[in-house]
Structures are given as C-alpha cells and as structure tokens.
Design brief:
30% helix, alpha/beta, 6 helices, 26% strand
Length: 220
C-alpha cells in the first residue's frame, strides 16, 4: 500500500461550535490505483485528502506514505508534499501574473530544480497535457479546462508518487471533463502513479478502480 491511514480524525472549532470533519477514518490505497472519493458537500472529502497529502495535521490517528510513518512533530511535512504528493485544487490556485510555463516551473523551484532543467521539464509536462501552444499565456488568457491542465502539469512537476485532485471537473463543461479524465488515464499508464479524486459527479465513477463513499466525516 502506498497510503495507509488509521483512525484519522480532524476537528474544527471549539466546544458547541466544534465540527468533526473527518471521524476515525481508516483507509488504504494501492500503488497505481485510481480512487474516487464521493459524497455530499460537507461530508469531509476535501479534509480527508488534505490529511492524506499532509496539508492538514490530524487531531488523532496515524498515516503511512510509501510504508513510512509520518511523524508530524519531527518530519519536514513540506518535504513530503514536494517529494511524494502533488495537488490539483478545485480553484486552480495558479499565480495570475505568471505564464503557464512559469507556474509549472515555480513548483520545481521549491525542490531546487531551476534554470534550463526546470524549463525543459515544464515544457515537456505542458506538452504532455496538450498545452504546448499555450506556454506563454497567463491564467486570465486560458479557459477553465486549460487552467486545470496547467494545474495537473504543476502537480506532476516534482514527479510525485501520488496525485490528489479536489473536484477537478467542477468548473468544466462535459467535453472538458471528458478530456481531463482521458489525461488522468494517460497518467496512470506507467502503473506507478496513484490518483485520488474527490468528486460528487456520479458520471465520473466509471473511471475508477474503486469508489469510496463518505458521509458525516466517515467512510460508509
């Protein structure tokens, strides 16, 4: 298993206002697996992948990534995020004044890959997602589908073992959604890339190896 979690719990707020967003969740994901995490809005899907990707720290439970126990007190969590996981955010989170090429290169800068090597890899990734003709375009000049493809290229920048995508088709039309899922299938051809997608779109479940349903912070 590339991801193994036991008893993951995350709470927000205090006292009467406390919300248990993820409640004692156990989950395992195999290397190369495409998993869909589904459920109604507010059920804890985004919080769960944020915990699995070390963006959030759990209040309870333990997490293993690539068979290594994550030590939240001593591990460099930013290193785990740079080395092991890539994130595709629902609202893209692209820097508006940078070009598509520069947005992807910036992700490599934090892992000390710069200059010609970073530019070459960024160009290859953007070509891989079908954007070789949009390298110099800024986010404001791109369609929703193109922005999402830049986000996928950026998530791949540091060659992560795991990609988490939060509602990646929420801002896309049906044709763009289909194109994006074709890209996801291409990314999995090496059998080494694990992808976990949060979605509430039932039509996407046909693409998954496994569907995980959540309700009220729990896997049901």
């Amino acid at each position: 298993m590339i991801i193994e979690a036991k008893g993951l719990t995350k709470k927000f707020g205090q006292s009467a206002a406390e919300i248990v967003a993820v409640n004692q969740v156990d989950i395992s994901i195999k290397m190369g697996e495409l998993v869909m995490i589904m459920g109604d809005s507010g059920c804890g899907k985004t919080t769960l992948i944020s915990l699995l990707g070390c963006i959030l720290t759990p209040d309870e439970g333990e997490l293993r990534i690539n068979q290594k126990l994550v030590d939240y007190e001593n591990d460099d969590l930013s290193l785990i995020r740079r080395r092991d996981v890539g994130f595709v955010f629902q609202l893209f989170n692209l820097i508006p004044y940078l070009t598509a090429l520069e947005n992807v290169m910036l992700a490599m800068d934090i892992s000390n890959t710069r200059g010609f090597e970073a530019e070459k890899r960024a160009k290859n990734l953007l070509t891989r997602v079908g954007l070789e003709h949009r390298l110099s375009h800024r986010p404001g000049q791109l369609s929703g589908g193109e922005k999402q493809r830049v986000s996928f290229a950026r998530a791949l920048a540091n060659q992560p073992k795991i990609i988490f995508a939060d509602e990646p088709t929420a801002n896309l039309d049906s044709r763009q959604s289909q194109n994006l899922m074709e890209l996801v299938r291409e990314l999995r051809q090496d059998g080494q890339t694990t992808i976990a997608i949060v979605t509430h779109y039932q039509e996407l479940r046909k693409n998954a190896d496994r569907v995980i349903h959540m309700k009220d912070g729990k896997i049901i």
